[in-house]
Amino acid sequence: MSHFIKYLPFHIRHLDESSSPTPSPTSPDDNEETHEYDAHNVLLLNITLILCVFIAYLIKRNRFYAVPESAAAMLTGIVIGGLVRLASPEQDKLPFLYFNAEVFFFLLLPPIIFEAGYTLRRKSFFANITPIVAYAFVGTLVSTFVVGGLVFSLAKMGLTSAVDETNPMESLLFGALISAVDPVATLSIMGSPELQCDQLLYSLVFGESVLNDAVAIVLFKTFRKYYAPEDPDLAGSDIPSALFSFVAVSLGSIIVGLLIGLLTSFLYKHTRLYEYPRFETAILFLFCYLCYSLAESMELSGIMALFFNGILLSHYNSYNLSEISYITAEQIFATLAVVAETLVFLYMGLSVFNGAFESWNPLMSFMMLGFCVLARASHIFPLTWLVNRCRSPSNKIPMKMQYVLWFVGLRGAIAFALAENMPGPNKQSYVANTLCICIFTTVVCGGFTERLLTKFGMKQPDGVTAELAHNSDPYESLFPSNRLNRSTSAGRIAVGIHGFWKRADNLYFKPLFGGTEGARRRGQSAHGLHDSHETTQINFDDDDDEEEDTEMRRFLDSVGGSEGVERKSRSRGASNSEEDEDVDPVGRYDPPAEP
């Protein structure tokens, strides 16, 4: 157990640890004491996580938007960390408060990113791909250089000693890490059906956040390669090379993710794994980590590779899975993502009492927060103006929505984890300032999101509200792609690049990797669950007919799935329908359906 414990994010640190790679002999009594000590730490972590998840449930249940779930986990960590500190004032006897950043990147972050790509609403995402890419790529670059330049200017003017005034690369490293936007608190509120958040706004915020994380990590790692504290002049002259390396790493990561996705889909399409759902789900899970670890071992971005891998697997491989594996895999990744996000925000609260604020300068944190606000404004408004010039009048991004986009640029787990990997002697100062900015934006900005949406009218009309809030069909919740825009005529001929891709995809790629054209009946032989529905072909494409929902109902009825999904709503009766209107049976907060 102790060997496993030390790899948990709350790193167990013993006072008698030696720097020698060869462990010293220990007596059985010492091993027993160590085991008991480790067990206490895991117990405390487990209880705290359960408390955070239960608080998140109460917040969602009671629609208490002033404190988002991520902010609640962070505040819970602050309270628990304070109690642990009071119980044991000695700094070096609090292993519960320490975090291993590498475990975050290799264990906790992959499920979050893959789940974001796998459950992505592809139609909304690609319909707004131009502003999303502009904000995520160009905007992150602009933000990095604005924040980095302003921080370096403070050092050059002698206003702070916590920044290297001779090396601009250190300031750019901080600019890259603090440009990682992580609006988990905002998205959890925007995704609530009863708030009827504007669909375009949700798509822009979500799309920017998932790509921005990958871009910020690639930028940080790229600048870190060129960080040379012993030769600051050389580091400054390497900025163009670093930008070229950033572009190469980004493209390479996307290619790796797509290739692994195609390989996985081809394997599932041309084997009979669907007859063994346990192996089917296990191999899918392992291929995801294979994609991430392969990209990282090639010094590419595992995050960017995994996100596009998830999109491609959702497009092709979801048709190759048995129905039971499709549901199981989606729920496993969603559950892992929830636990990982809760754990990270919990730790950020605990870190307040692990000595991170020993080198904290409140004035410096306030100024850096102002730099972040200015940097976000410097790219949101100009880039939106350029994007609007290429969009139809009815599809332009209004000024009120731009204000919301500017406000919801929260900083979170990615920024803090990157700060933990900050090189140089000023690391602790950057960690403290980053943690302060993350706490402020998550608690304050996240808490004001609902009021801001109300003030600027970023909600759907009331008629849409009732339809979205009361249409609690569990089958549409299980398969959100079925409730996307169906207004397009089935006979419409697609034109342009989209039309060319759709025809090529249907004629060549889907028969090879899985999809609508020639798709196998998923899970026919999965333990005989579907013998009575051998003629059923389930189709999950965005433009599918409504009959597919009926077929899925029949399947879930045959295995008892619908009873498990609907038993609570039946027992409570119609009188409680308004109270339960925001319950998502799969635990994922989807945004309102597209009109």
Automatic annotation (TrEMBL):
Subcellular location: Membrane
Transmembrane residue ranges: 39-59, 66-84, 96-120, 132-152, 243-267, 279-295, 301-319, 331-353, 365-387, 399-418, 430-449
Gene3D superfamilies: 6.10.140.1330
Domain of life, source organism: Eukaryota
Record's bilayer topology term: Multi-pass membrane protein
Region (Disordered): 519-595
Tagged with keyword Membrane: yes
GO biological process, one term: regulation of intracellular pH
Pfam family, one: Na_H_Exchanger
Principal localisation: membrane
Acidic residues composition-biased segments: 540-550
Protein keywords: Antiport, Ion transport, Membrane, Sodium, Sodium transport, Transmembrane, Transmembrane helix, Transport
Stored InterPro entries: Cation/H_exchanger_CPA1, Cation/H_exchanger_TM, NaH_exchanger
Family to which this protein belongs: Belongs to the monovalent cation:proton antiporter 1 (CPA1) transporter (TC 2.A.36) family.
Protein name per its UniProtKB record: Sodium/hydrogen exchanger
